[in-house]
Design a protein that fits this description.
The chain has 8 helices and 9 strands. By secondary structure, the chain is α/β, with parallel strands linked by helices. It has a domain of about 140 residues: 3-Layer(aba) Sandwich (Rossmann fold). Strands 2-7-1-8-9 form a 5-stranded parallel sheet, with helices on both faces. The protein has a 4-stranded mixed sheet with strand order 4-3-6-5.
Length: about 220
């Protein structure tokens, strides 16, 4: 008699990780570390109308567009979400996410907090299994005082731009309820480990839901 377990085993179902945070919280560092640890995780390259910063590569860090090019993509319905932040437009292309998920690849999105409402409206149109592929994470600083310290240490802010960024951050913190989970980034290692645990839990939930659908 064959005593081996022939039941299907969980597979690494592709997920879309949406990570948003106030500027200066360390979101980019967290995403880079996740990409190092997860070979199947790809970064969703956002579009922006702002100028490239030193060291940023077109098509790798951002798609740098003119405002006219960006607005044409809005009219064509090419964005999952888009938002204006400090005078510049930022947006996530549908193709950056949907193509990767269809190919079985995990994808991580770095978006502005104000774009989350648009993503949630998009998620409301999905079937339960496809909705469960999305994990909405809000990354928080330990405090606004610590956030101000981090922004000052960048050496790129005037007092006026710092004041404006902190006002925006306070507003974004009031939108924490839009996310499924919040994580305080007081230490990169701890924050990344928390996200990895959430990913493992979500894969299990997705697998169990799919098994229920076929039973």
């Amino acid at each position: 008699m064959n005593t081996s377990d022939s039941s299907p085993q969980p597979v690494n179902e592709p997920l879309a990780l949406l990570i948003a945070a106030p500027s200066g919280t360390g979101k980019s560092t967290i995403i880079k570390e996740l990409c190092k640890r997860m070979p199947n995780l790809q970064f969703s390259v956002s579009c922006t109308t702002r100028s490239p910063r030193e060291g940023e590569r077109p098509g790798i860090d951002y798609y740098f567009l003119s405002r006219e090019e960006f607005e044409a993509k809005i009219r064509n319905g090419e964005f999952l979400e888009y938002a204006q932040y400090v005078g510049n437009l930022y947006g996530t292309l549908r193709s950056e996410v949907e193509d990767r998920l269809q190919a079985g690849t995990d994808v991580v999105l770095d978006i502005e907090v104000q774009g989350v409402r648009q993503i949630r409206r998009y998620l409301d149109t999905l079937m339960p299994v496809e909705r469960l592929r999305w994990l909405l994470i809000f990354l928080k600083p330990p405090s606004l005082e610590e956030l101000a310290r981090r922004l000052r240490n960048r050496g790129t802010e005037t007092e006026e731009s710092l004041r404006r960024r902190l006002e925006i951050a306070a507003s974004e913190l009031r939108n924490e309820h839009l996310f499924e989970v919040s994580i305080v980034n007081d230490r990169v290692e701890r924050a990344v480990s928390e996200i990895e645990a959430l990913i493992e839990q979500r894969r299990k939930q997705l697998y169990e839901l799919k098994q229920k659908d076929v039973s």
